[in-house]
């Protein structure tokens, strides 16, 4: 088997690469901006590894990635690349948010569609899109990120049902973790005030559930319960609670 993983130079993507190569024996195409990190990771891995250094917030690079890999007979697509930005919507940098939309939404949409068409032709394949527990809610002070992950979650769910109705041997999954110990905080300029799951655990859990054809993958019982509780809380109260949670993250970062 061969998998393509975006955002593979750190965090969940890096640990997915380690698990899939060293434990499952899967060949990999690793994609990220930081070539040096990818080269370092490649030395740790046991299977055939191809490295592609591209910034997928530039849509021309997304198209370039597909054109460069469409003949590779890829079995698994993992759309993991993404980032967030803390702050109130009227104050956050617009260019950064547009880049986030381009990476978190446009790149995921394009690669999902293009590889899905290929998977239909051969009637096999796996797509794992990395969303977030944020995908189930609106996120004051992290608004664009939450909205982008809502898109990824709902797109994945809709495509799953279409594939199921067409009785194709294609499996769609979407990963929705809570806080994970990655570089997310550094990039987003915030800090979690609750405990985070390890990226190693989340990566392994996600891959194992993907191969079991799980649609929505939520690591940790704590996060499953938290997401369930959001269904019981009135929207305005949930917005109030979420704002306070994000506010504590940014204030903790400033100290």
Describe the overall structure:
- 52% of the residues lie in helices and 15% in strands.
- The chain has helices spanning 11-23, 35-42, 59-69, 94-122, 143-165, 184-188, 199-211, 221-230, 235-254, and strands at residues 2-6, 27-32, 49-53, 76-79, 125-130, 170-175, 180-181, 197-198, 216-217.
- The strands form 2 sheets. Strands 3-2-1-4-5-6-9 form a 7-stranded parallel sheet, sandwiched between helices. A two-stranded parallel sheet has the order 7-8.
- Strand 2 (27-32), helix 2 (35-42) and strand 3 (49-53) form a beta-alpha-beta unit.
- The longest helix has 29 residues, at 94-122.
- The chain is globular.
- The protein starts with a strand and ends with a helix.
- 38% of the residues are buried.
Separate helix tally: 9
- Helix and strand pattern: EHEHEHEHEHEEHEHEHH
Low-confidence parts, pLDDT < 50 over ≥5 residues? none
Question: What global shape is seen?
Answer: globular
Main β-sheet description: 7 strands, parallel
DSSP, total strands:
9
SSE-based structural type: alpha/beta
Task: Set down the secondary structure blueprint.
Elements: E1 2-6, H1 11-23, E2 27-32, H2 35-42, E3 49-53, H3 59-69, E4 76-79, H4 94-122, E5 125-130, H5 143-165, E6 170-175, E7 180-181, H6 184-188, E8 197-198, H7 199-211, E9 216-217, H8 221-230, H9 235-254
Parallel strand pairs: 1-2, 1-4, 2-3, 4-5, 5-6, 6-9, 7-8
